[in-house]
Design goal:
This protein has one domain (about 25-215). Helices cover about 35% and strands about 30% of the residues. The chain is built from five helices and seven strands. The protein has helices at about 25-40, 45-80, 85-90, 105-125, 135-140, and strands spanning about 90-95, 100-105, 130-135, 150-155, 160-175, 175-190, 195-215. The strands form two sheets. Strands 3, 4, 5, 6 and 7 form a five-stranded antiparallel β-sheet that branches. α2 (about 45-80) crosses α4. The longest helix is centred in the first third of the chain and has 36 residues, at about 45-80.
């Protein structure tokens, strides 16, 4: 009987690499994609709610952007010119040196208001601004803040924008009053979102001049207020 070699069967163990856990960046990317899909399903009732919340956040960002542009132009204009209190206001006094009337130089105030408004429009590409808001910001979540693809938002300043001034008088002690001239810039803007158009107003107030008037307080300041 011939010698029979026994065959031994060897089973090779297949190497299966361990699955590495997702990195925080990948997890965040997956979450962002899922959120985008949810938002894209406009047929769901929650879609309308998310759009409304996103619109409010986008409008808030647009208002902040325009406000910064307005204040920057006002500060730049005021720093370059010699705009003191006496430049805008004339004080009339009697023979004893008491102030009898305060009259505003409307021509200078109107000129400054027009120049500032024109500068604001010129500095924003003829009244237009483009901003990109990360979709994570529109969801109002701190976890997703600054994350995800951006949503383009266009801001258009309307011709109904205007600049004006306001006077404020307050007591500063015995026979003393504080007079302040405050510039008001009101800008009507259209906020163009991918899904809708919103119109709102941006109001910026800046103190341009103030002084303390010492002496007997006049009974009337007829020349200060607009009719």
């Amino acid at each position: 009987m011939p010698f029979m070699k026994r065959k031994h069967s060897f089973h090779r163990r297949r190497y299966r690499p361990r699955r590495r856990p997702f990195s925080p960046e990948k997890k965040l990317a997956i979450i962002t994609i899922m959120v985008i899909i949810v938002i894209g399903v406009s047929a769901l009732p929650i879609s309308g709610f998310l759009k409304e919340v996103s619109s409010q956040i986008a409008i808030s960002d647009a208002i902040d952007t325009v406000t910064v542009a307005i204040n920057d132009e006002i500060n730049d204009k005021m720093s370059k010119g010699q705009y003191s209190y006496d430049y805008f206001v004339n004080l009339e006094k009697d023979t004893e040196g008491n102030v009898t009337a305060i009259s505003a130089n409307m021509s200078r105030i109107n000129t400054l208001s027009s120049e500032i408004l024109r500068s604001v429009i010129e500095s924003t590409n003829n009244g237009e601004l483009d901003i990109d808001i990360p979709i994570g910001n529109l969801l109002g979540s701190n976890l997703l803040l600054g994350r995800g693809p951006t949503v383009p938002v266009k801001i258009i300043m309307l011709t109904s924008s205007f600049a004006d001034f306001r006077n404020e008088l307050s007591s500063a002690g015995i026979n003393q009053i504080k007079h302040q001239i405050i510039l008001e810039v009101r800008v009507e803007i259209d906020v163009l979102l991918p899904w809708e158009l919103k119109t709102t107003e941006v109001l910026s107030e800046v103190l341009i001049a103030e002084t303390i008037v010492v002496g007997k307080v006049p009974n009337t300041y007829l020349s200060l207020n607009r009719p």
